Amino acid sequence: MVTVASRKRALYHRKIRQKEAKLAAPHAIHEEFPNDAEIIHQLKVSDAHFAKLLDEYDSLNDEVVAAETFVKPTAEDAEHEMRRRRVLLKDEIARAISAAKA
Predict the structure, then answer these.
(1) Which residues are CB-contacts of 88 (< 8 A; sequence separation ≥ 6)?
(2) How confident is the model at residue 30, as a pLDDT?
(3) Is the pLDDT of residue 20 over 90?
(4) What is the CA radius of gyration of the chain?
(5) Does residue 28 have a pLDDT over 90?
(6) What pLDDT band is residue 94 in, cutting at 50, 70 and 90?
(7) From CA 82, how far away is CA 86, in angstroms rounded?
(8) Confidence band, pLDDT 50/70/90 cuts, at residue 27
(9) What average pLDDT does range 24-35 have in this prediction?
(10) Are 43 and 100 in contact (CB under 8 A)?
(11) How far apart are CA 64 and CA 83, in angstroms?
(12) Cβ atoms within 10 A of the Cβ of 64, count?
């Protein structure tokens, strides 16, 4: 049952998320790993799996940004799941970068 209090809470949280969205960083890979641009480029052209990871990350990041900025309204749990998947992809990308440095 939806109560007046729950509607007010939902509206309050939506306003907070809108304010945060204006401040949210886009989380592009070159911003996440600013010192590794050359390694990222080398891996992208030489490793098909790494290139696929970057494409997946960029696509998912675009979806997250669209959800955060309310361009594409998204359920909160779905947005949370997208963020979780983005972190997992970023971790895998970071491991590949670290391995390439070694």
Answers:
(1) none
(2) 86
(3) no
(4) 17
(5) no
(6) very high
(7) 6
(8) confident
(9) 81
(10) yes
(11) 7
(12) 20
Q: 47 in the Ramachandran plot: left (φ > 0), alpha (ψ -120 to 50) or beta?
A: beta
What is the C-alpha separation between 60 and 53, in angstroms, rounded? Answer: 10
How far apart are the C-alpha atoms of 13 and 85, rounded to whole Å? 23
pLDDT computed for residue 100 by the predictor: 94
Here the tokens at position 97 are: 């970068």
pLDDT at 15: 62
For residue 41, give both structure tokens.
Answer: 């480029």
- For residue 21, the Cα-to-chain-centroid distance in whole angstroms is 12
DSSP states of 24-88 as a string? -----HHHHSGGGHHHHHHHHHH-HHHHHHHHHHHHHHHHHHHHHTTSS---HHHHHHHHHHHHH
Average pLDDT over residues 42-59: 95
CB 55 within 8 A of CB 44: no
Helix (H) or strand (E) holding 92: helix 76-101
pTM confidence score: 0.70
